[in-house]
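Q: What structure does this chain adopt?
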Amino acid sequence: MAIEQETKVQGYMPLDRPPAGAMLSLGFQQVLTMFPATVLVAILTKFDVGATLLTSGLGTIVALLVSRGRIPLYYGSSFSYIAVVISAMSLFVPDCFNNPVLNYCGEGVRLVQVGILGTAVVEIVIGLLIMRAGKAVLDRVLPPIITGSVAVVIGIALAGAALNNAASGGPVFNQSNPLPESMAGIPWLVALITLVATVAFSVYLQNRGLLGMLPILLGAGVGYAVSIPFGLVNFDQVLTAEWIAAPRITLPAFEDPRAWSIMVSIALIAVATIPESTAHLYQMSLYIDALAKQLGRAPLEIKKLIGLNLIADGAQDVVAGALGGAAGTNYGENNSLMAITRNYSSWVLAVAGLIAIALAFIGKLAALIGTIPVAVTGGLAIYLFGVIGMQGVALIQSEKVNLFEPRNLAIGAIILVTGIGGSMALPNGLFPFQIPVIFPNGIPAIVFAAIAGILLNLLFVVLPPRLFGVQERENLNG
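A:
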């Protein structure tokens, strides 16, 4: 009779320290997973790729130190900030996005850095409040109908920017070297091929190991390869670039009066990123405690560390805002990789951070990334920006928000119309309400939408319908 042998469970808990070889290989895999999306955000917002990689790695290490290794999360660039960053740069430094040759806009970056630091302050303050008063207070001020609707606005408001990129021949073709009329459809063809390939990879490579986690990288590779025979790629800057080059580190433009308007605008985007970060924490807590049970250890229940997690988020944004990297968030892609490999070691994530820092100093890598045609990023953006919007819908759905209740309908409707309609229809996407120092030129539509939703919700909290004898309608969503 065959004797069944018990299979040994393999995996690493947050404070476990794997052997050196395992730490290096697992760390590199974490970097490979975060790399495509982190770099893409830098490209789309005209940030320096090297500085973004540097702050991604350093910020992850700082966040791990803040949580004392108890919360194993990797930090990369956040897509949630793209819309407001592009809007702010386009308004205050028009050349950032009017010039297709420009792949880095230092003046715009310095202004946005002030906003990223503002976000850090918001995250840290809310984290401290949650540690003191509990998450229920946050849920009353920022219920899912607000956070979900703002996420929809953030994604859909970028639709125009995505389509403009898809039609661009940059960086090879620009104002001094315009795209020939006979080639006008080529960028669109490249963008659509990139889009279809990315969607196909994301759908058909699910649960296929590491490949299944890299649809953006694979889709970009297809688009890049297609662009070469059409003459949309020029390798001259790669050949002349230095192998070792320092990232373009910049200091926040605190002295610029325009920066304070941007600070408020960007800081308010935390309305969308805080629920996202909290959801990632709950997800990781579930996975880690499942492994703990299999290993015969006590559950860690890191889901109880919501406040500390937001403080760690803020610490990472302090690093990004201080050094000139794109605003960050903990990455769902890396969370999924950890779930697949059952590796939740904070030591591994720290090694990944060190690898990212090292990559930030490879000059030819940054130059190669700079050759990616704008049409390729446009094809990726059509998909990614739409996904951001759909994630807002998913949040509303998963939280079973009662959309049969008039107050929820009112909050969501106002956020959607003022945010999306304002971004597309108003001049420069600004509501004409001038507030000295903060919004001297008017309030950005996305910011106006978030403020309107928050204030309307607070009105319903202070004056709930039941005070007027109104009974809440049945939630048919369960």
